[in-house]
UniProtKB/TrEMBL annotation:
Reaction(s) this enzyme catalyzes, per UniProt: AMP + ATP = 2 ADP
UniProt name for this protein: Adenylate kinase
Gene3D superfamilies in the record: P-loop containing nucleotide triphosphate hydrolases
Organism this protein belongs to: Paenibacillus swuensis
Underlying gene: adk
InterPro entries on file: Adenyl_kin_sub (IPR006259), Adenylat/UMP-CMP_kin (IPR000850), Adenylat_kinase_CS (IPR033690), Adenylate_kinase_lid-dom (IPR007862), P-loop_NTPase (IPR027417)
């Protein structure tokens, strides 16, 4: 199963991806996670990406497309993949089409998680992430059992540097200007399915599951 999760910052792509990949046994490919890992390690790509990520701007297409192209050729993608946060521009979408054609593969589903702007702001400013395993929490909507500590691995929780009100504003503008046009692109290809991302986390997961299993 070859899947894309789309949706604005804070829509729940990462939260839902964690659940769906464990059920379908496919790798979770998040370009945002890849950039944050490279930034932490201080690689040349990470240093370049940081200039953009820290400002809430999209990283240039050539860097982003290169990462995904390499990742999709790894062995664990043979049974499928879940792309989270890629593509985000029409150029990236066209490049993905070419990459998949070259591999004689095609997309099965593009799922758009729909969430209103006010709710996105609340979700992002309250988000906390585990330093050790990357699990995602929310101080109000999905709190850990022990404050500041991960339920799964007891790792320490931190706040992403781009989850401030100001940076979230820039990220939402980037989404509207550059990424939202992709919805029409996938609609024309009859791949796009809308899911109401404003429901509780479990309800969103079951709606996505129904779409992926062809029951909705
Ligand atoms: P990326 O890491 O992809 O960030 P994003 O798209 O802004 O999305 P988020 O990860 O912020 O949100 P999410 O939808 O995953 O929500 P989550 O599940 O965590 O990208 C970061 C940066 O990298 C970009 O700004 C850009 O610079 C660069 N980049 C990445 N990809 C790129 C690309 N393709 N091209 C160019 N640049 C790129 O949930 C959010 C919060 O809400 C959590 O606290 C969660 O617990 C809570 N929550 C989730 N679901 C629910 C629910 N149903 N009810 C209540 N709370 C919920
Ligand atoms: Mg995410
Ligand atoms: Zn953890």
């Amino acid at each position: 199963m070859n899947i894309i999760f789309m949706g604005p910052p804070g829509a729940g792509k990462g939260t839902q991806a964690e659940r769906i990949v464990s059920e379908f046994k496919i790798p979770h490919i998040s370009t945002g996670d890849a950039f944050r890992a490279a930034m932490k390690q201080g690689t040349a790509m990470g240093v370049k990406a940081k200039e953009y990520v820290d400002q809430g701007l999209l990283v240039p297409d050539d860097i982003t497309i290169g990462i995904v192209k390499e990742r999709l050729q790894e062995a664990d993608c043979a049974s499928g993949f879940l792309l989270d946060g890629f593509p985000r521009t029409l150029e990236q979408a066209a490049a993905l089409d070419d990459i998949l054609t070259g591999m004689e593969r095609k997309l099965d589903h593009v799922i758009n998680l729909r969430v209103d702007r006010d709710l996105l702001l609340a979700r992002l400013t309250g988000r906390r992430i585990c330093k050790s395993c990357g699990a995602t929490y929310h101080v109000i909507f999905n709190p850990p059992h022990r404050e500041h500590l991960c339920d799964k691995c007891s790792g320490e929780l931190y706040q992403r540097s781009d989850d401030t009100e100001e940076k979230v504003g820039t990220r939402l503008d980037e989404y509207i200007n550059k990424t939202a046009p992709l919805l029409a692109y996938y609609e024309q290809k009859h791949l796009l399915r809308e899911v109401n991302g404003e429901q509780e986390i479990d309800a969103v997961t079951s709606e996505i599951n129904s779409v992926l299993r062809g029951q909705a």
